[in-house]
Write a structure and sequence with these properties.
Blueprint: E1 8-10, H1 11-14, E2 18-21, E3 27-37, E4 42-49, E5 57-63, E6 67-70, E7 75-77, H2 89-97, E8 106-109, E9 114-125, E10 129-137, E11 149-153, E12 164-167, H3 182-195
Length: 198
């Protein structure tokens, strides 16, 4: 896997993105929330709201399979028909995920050390969306140079359950406070876990 920095996004950056059709170039919705599949560590899709300052929630959702492209400024789909009513797998995940939001969860190492609390989820947009790390704050052991937050890479497989998120203790050496350099940190961390190399 090659991680390019321009393809790394915070999940919160996607909130408010217009959903635009390739068919007519029309912005038909906005991203309301990002639906994160905690068991799969992946982005499953989006809940939506109507466009505009007072736009309320929409009944339709947008599954990732229907997304043609995702950039820093818009979510592109083929046509308005790609939005689905809330009776599919995505809607079920939204229902089940209530009460187990990753944001504000504690991050602990498998050695029992508290690293901080999740403030955002970092997503790699490549062949498919993959959650590759967390932005965390409130750390007493990690001291960022600026902004008070750091980025913690995740292993290739990570099951999330309960109130705390557990990461390998080796993550210490791969934490960064720079999102632009975070992709390289993810690759080095995963290589280290696979091979045990420094």
């Amino acid at each position: 896997m090659s991680v390019h920095p321009s393809l790394l996004l915070r999940a919160t950056e996607l909130i408010g993105h217009p959903v635009v059709t390739l068919e007519g170039g029309e912005a038909i919705a906005e991203v309301k929330d990002v639906v994160y599949g905690s068991a799969e560590a992946s982005l499953l899709g989006f809940t939506l709201r109507h466009r505009g300052f007072l736009g309320g929630p929409m009944k339709q959702v947008l599954a990732w399979a229907q997304v043609v492209a995702l950039g820093r400024h818009a979510v592109m789909i083929a046509s308005a028909g790609d939005l689905a009513e809330r009776d599919d797998v995505l809607a079920q995940e939204v229902k089940e995920s209530r009460g187990r939001n990753v944001i504000d969860s504690e991050v602990l190492t498998d050695a029992g050390e508290r690293l901080g609390e999740v403030t955002d989820v970092v997503i790699l947009i490549d062949d498919g969306p993959e959650v590759v790390g967390y932005e965390i704050g409130g750390s007493e052991v990690l001291t960022p140079r600026s902004g008070g937050h750091v980025f913690v890479p995740l292993p290739e497989t990570l099951a999330v359950s309960g109130e705390a998120l557990i990461v390998p203790a080796a993550v210490h050496d791969f934490v960064t406070d720079d999102l632009a350099g975070f992709g390289a940190a993810v690759e080095r961390f995963r290589d280290h876990l696979r091979t045990g190399s420094p």
